[in-house]
Design goal:
Distance between the termini: 105 Å
CATH class of the largest domain: Alpha Beta
Number of domains: 2
Order of helices and strands: HEHEHEHHEEEHEHEHEEHHEHHH
CATH topology of the largest domain: D-Maltodextrin-Binding Protein, domain 2
Strand order of the largest sheet: 7-6-8-5-9-11
CATH architecture of the largest domain: 3-Layer(aba) Sandwich
Largest sheet: 6 strands, mixed
Number of helices: 13
Number of strands: 11
Helix content: 40-55%
Shape: globular
Radius of gyration: 30 Å
Structural class: alpha/beta
Strand content: 5-15%
Length: about 375
């Protein structure tokens, strides 16, 4: 009996030890799981808090062209759970509208939303970052940038100015602007003082126009006072807001110089390199979203705005074909000249030109075939207004 009791006691002791070991194992395992659960939020909470300033080249009153900057700031904040905040400033609040690149380059602001072709005075190759006369439409511009090597060939130019660039908006094909007098021939352009930006101004100068570069918020006053004889901005939605039809009668189309002008988010390269990779990705995603939304907004808003402008008495006119042909000839003469003046132009232009020519071959088939038929049909009557 005594031996049996000893065996029973030993078995009980062994079982107790085993139960204790299992409890220790489960306790440690539970602690490990809990530790992992706490670690993930802790890592997220450890992500840096960043505050940037963004300078726009556009006034808040032009809500569609100003919109991408606001969208980028909002989306970056949401993606980073509020850790990365970008404060947006309209044109003139921090720096003048046409000095955004300078402000980003010298670190006055960390980033800016602008049109690269505003800076062709620094290097004409900046035009490729927005649009080149008789160049690409909005879809082709996106194709060149995302898939056709455009961003890669432009990166070297931006690097020289200490910035990183993301495309962040497109207006689609623009209108050709407002004129005090009718344009019947190329002779009617001679001596005309016109607000027009970038390379387009240099093209028009070759056919006799006197180009003026004026920020969007200042165009109306210049046209009203007679400082200029004509002005172009974007299209019906913005032009109606700016009131151009009150001071000029003739509304021409198309803007052969802006078939699909791209806007850009420019970021100080050093500041961008300091960001965590996840924050860099947040910026890239937000910029791409703004690029899509801005074009969609213009396509919707321009429709009703054009109806209102015409109903108010504006005279809608197409540019005579002879005028466009003369300007096209002047444009490609200029492009050959610019290759002698800018190493970046000489490097980028052949790449861009080949891409353009290839795209034209494709768009002549399905795209043009569809558009030519669809838009040659009688215009549908507008739906009656709801009572």
């Amino acid at each position: 009996m005594k031996q049996s009791a000893r065996k029973a006691a030993q078995a009980a002791t062994t079982a107790a030890i085993a139960r204790q070991q299992r409890r220790r194992f489960l306790t440690r395992a539970a602690a490990g799981i809990a530790g992992s659960a706490v670690a993930a939020p802790a890592i997220a909470q450890a992500q840096a808090s960043v505050q940037w300033r963004l300078a726009s080249s556009f006034p808040k009153s032009l809500d569609t062209v100003f919109y991408p900057a606001d969208l980028i700031a909002r989306r970056v904040s949401e993606i980073t759970d509020g850790k990365f905040q970008i404060r947006v400033f309209a044109a003139g609040e921090v720096v003048p509208a046409l000095q955004v690149l300078d402000a980003v380059q010298n670190g006055t602001v960390e980033c800016g939303h602008t049109a690269p072709y505003y800076y062709v005075g620094k290097d004409p190759a900046f035009a490729f970052g927005t649009n080149v006369p008789f160049g690409l439409n909005a879809r082709q511009q996106n194709a060149w940038w995302y898939e056709g090597g455009g961003r890669d060939v432009m990166a070297e130019l931006y690097k020289d100015y200490g910035v990183v660039e993301f495309n962040a908006g497109n207006t689609g094909a623009q209108m050709g602007g407002w004129y005090r007098k009718e344009i019947r021939s190329i002779a009617d352009l001679k001596g005309l003082k016109m607000r027009i930006a970038g390379i387009a101004g240099q093209v028009l100068a070759k056919v006799g126009v006197v180009p003026q570069q004026i920020a969007g918020g200042e165009i109306y006053q210049a046209l009203e006072r007679g400082t200029i004889d004509a002005a172009e901005w974007v299209g019906p939605y913005d032009d109606e807001k700016l009131g151009f039809s009150k001071v000029a009668r003739y509304y021409y189309y198309p803007a052969w110089w802006e078939g699909g002008p791209q806007l850009s988010l420019m970021i100080n390269a050093k500041k961008f390199a300091e960001l965590p990779k996840s924050y860099q990705s947040a910026i890239a995603a937000a910029a791409a979203e703004s690029n899509v939304h801005m074009l969609a907004r213009y396509d919707v808003r321009n429709t009703d705005a054009l109806r209102k402008i015409v109903a108010a008495g504006a005279l809608l006119r197409p540019f005579p074909r002879a005028v466009m042909e003369a300007c096209e000839k002047a444009a490609f003469e200029l492009y050959d000249e610019l290759a002698q003046k800018s190493k970046h132009w000489a490097r980028i232009y052949p790449v861009w030109k080949k891409f353009r020519d290839d795209q034209y071959l494709w768009f002549r088939v399905a795209e043009f075939g569809f558009d030519n038929f669809a838009y040659s049909r009688p215009a549908p009557k507008p739906a009656p207004a709801k009572k």
